[in-house]
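Write out a sequence, fold above all:
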Amino acid sequence: MAINRPASPFWRFLYEHSLAIVIVLLTLGTLAGQFVTGWHDYNDELKDMGLVALSAGQYFHSGHFLEATFENWESEFLQMGLYVLLTVWLRQRGSSESKKLYEEEEVDAEPDASKEDAPWPVRQGGWVLQLYKNSLSIAFFLLFFGAFFLHARGGAEVYSIEQVHDGKAAVSTWEYMATSRFWFESLQNWQSEFLSILSIVTLSIFLRQHGSPESKPVDAAHGETGK
């Protein structure tokens, strides 16, 4: 059944972009909460070390905020990048997150440059098209490596402050990346992201959510694979 299109351009915009708008608001709200609570928590740590507390502006540029933010972002981008690639080749019987087991799907078809609304890279062809065909995974991995480095940079600053306070030498970003602390921070986030992928892949075999495109139809058999 078709849904009536809002007459007002404003309400139409809100309806057509409601998913992104809500997620952006949730992201900004939780990031603001992280900033405020992290600022107070880090100032408590600095006070315990006999160091000067940071203003809000100083904390925004601090290694603590940088590390806490990008430590989480890197795992999210890694999760999505790997998931996009793994679902190209791998299957899971009964999962709504898998391609069908033995059938060709629309996403496997070669792009058609003759389509009137085909994106510019498809019409351009050549290396531009080859790059565009893998642009989603490339974007996620570029974001991952950027967040990975910023996590290390922020962590190195925090670690160096602690080292100097204990009478030890500060470390560079690259030296910090060789520490077990850096890899502990990364791996504890990576495993949780992989667990979330496993959860949606396997739970969608047996469980349903009416109205969600991430779920199979409520009356679909457990063995039915794909959307």
